[in-house]
Write a structure and sequence with these properties.
Blueprint: H1 8-13, E1 18-20, H2 24-29, E2 36-37, H3 43-56, H4 58-68, H5 71-87, E3 92-94, H6 100-111, H7 122-140, E4 142-148, H8 154-158, E5 164-165, H9 167-171, H10 188-204, E6 209-213, E7 218-219, E8 222-223, H11 226-232, E9 237-240, H12 244-267, H13 269-285, H14 288-291, H15 293-313, H16 319-341, E10 346-350, H17 352-365
Parallel strand pairs: 1-2, 1-3, 4-6, 4-9, 5-6, 9-10
Antiparallel strand pairs: 7-8
Helix pairs in contact: 3-4, 7-10, 12-13, 12-16, 13-15, 15-16
Length: 366
């Protein structure tokens, strides 16, 4: 049998398979990228055992757990663990602290003829390791922010750099009021864990400077880790410039064509389009106070006309009208104000090709 694992860096950098034997309610609050949840106890069983532990002590709780998970229930779970272990011989299992649940799972696997190692310290130790990885990056690594007007293609630039950290991609959100995808955002802890793993992998490749989009603290419903965000403030800024026409086309693709396709793939043509249209209307309504009543009504009518034509013929041309107005009358003035407030921090500005070249050379110089 391989030794129980204390090399957490190896687990995350090399994407080693992990089997989480915590209850589903624990797993959904936070886990690690690519982890499989195969619980020792389901939520109801865990609650019963927890109540018994509080009222009658550990031994009574253990005995109750063995009664609840026995017979066919036990055999089914043993089989699922055995299948995972055989399919992932280089993996590990863990519970919350690497204690009783992990040990029981190991013992029952051994009964099935399989020796399978656990993570020493369990989920808590892995989670603390990732928190520390972000803290170390904040203290030790160089950062440069990438700014630009809405739709200028900042995410595309980040994804062409081997030292880009795509916070919006990790958060499954494009960052603006219109930024939600058809699929939900991850849990806050999952977002933080994914960020830490991304940092660990890049640092393992020798990357010590990161390019990060100039974000607000919240990316949709998720918050950038506080110390990481504080470090972002005051960092040098590279400003991406792009013509209005290109920005309109990019927003049309991201927020209309691609978003509609996401909903249709998820819910089917009719229901998917209805959900997509409602999402756009909700996104516009979410900024009604900042738009003002008259402008909101004007944009809302233009959006409804564009959606009606899209539903009728599939054409998306009319969406350019409300997108153009939203940029020129709302987003651009807001970003221009923010840019002016950060003028002293801008060390370079240019189009995509120039910005990419500058950022690659900047990393090479550091």
């Amino acid at each position: 049998m391989r030794d129980n694992c204390t090399d957490f860096h190896d687990i995350f950098v090399n994407d080693l398979p992990l089997m989480d034997v915590r209850a589903p309610v624990e797993f959904h609050k936070g886990a690690f990228p690519g982890t499989r949840n195969l619980p020792l106890m389901n939520d109801a069983e865990r609650e019963q055992v927890g109540t018994c532990y509080k009222q009658r002590g550990q031994q009574a709780a253990i005995e109750l757990g063995h009664r609840l998970v026995s017979g066919e229930v036990k055999a089914t779970r043993q089989q699922a663990w055995a299948d995972f272990a055989r399919a992932n011989p280089d993996g590990y299992l863990y519970c919350f602290r690497g204690g009783l649940r992990s040990q029981i799972t190991q013992q029952w696997l051994k009964e099935a003829g399989i020796d399978y190692p656990r993570v020493v310290g369990g989920y808590k130790a892995l989670r603390n390791y990732l928190i520390n990885a972000v803290d170390l990056a904040v203290a030790e690594c160089d950062m440069v922010l990438l700014g630009g007007l809405t739709g200028s293609g900042k995410t595309e630039v980040l994804n062409q750099l081997n030292n880009g950290l795509d916070l919006e991609g990790l958060a499954n959100h494009r960052g603006s009021s219109f930024g939600r995808h058809a699929t939900p955002q991850p849990a806050q802890i999952d977002f933080e864990n994914a960020l830490a793993v991304d940092i660990l992998k890049k640092r393992a490749r020798g990357i010590e400077q990161f390019v990060i989009e100039d974000e607000a603290r919240a990316v949709g419903s998720l918050a950038i880790p506080v110390d990481f965000y504080r470090r972002m403030q005051g960092q040098s800024l590279v400003w991406l410039q792009d013509p209005v026409s290109s920005r309109v086309e990019r927003i049309l693709k991201d927020y209309v064509i691609d978003l509609c396709a996401e909903f249709v793939a998820q819910q089917g043509a009719e229901q998917g389009f209805t959900a997509f249209a409602e999402r756009l209307r909700q996104s516009l309504a979410s900024i009604v106070k900042r738009l003002g009543g008259e402008r909101y009504q004007r944009l809302s009518l233009a959006l409804d006309a564009a959606l009606a034509e899209q539903a009728r013929s599939g054409a998306v041309d009319l969406h350019r009208e409300w997108i153009s107005v939203l940029l020129s009358e709302y987003y651009d003035p807001m970003y221009a104000y923010q840019r002016d407030s950060k003028e002293a921090r801008i060390e370079f500005a240019g189009d995509r090709a120039a910005v990419l070249e500058y950022l690659k050379q900047r990393r090479a110089r550091r």
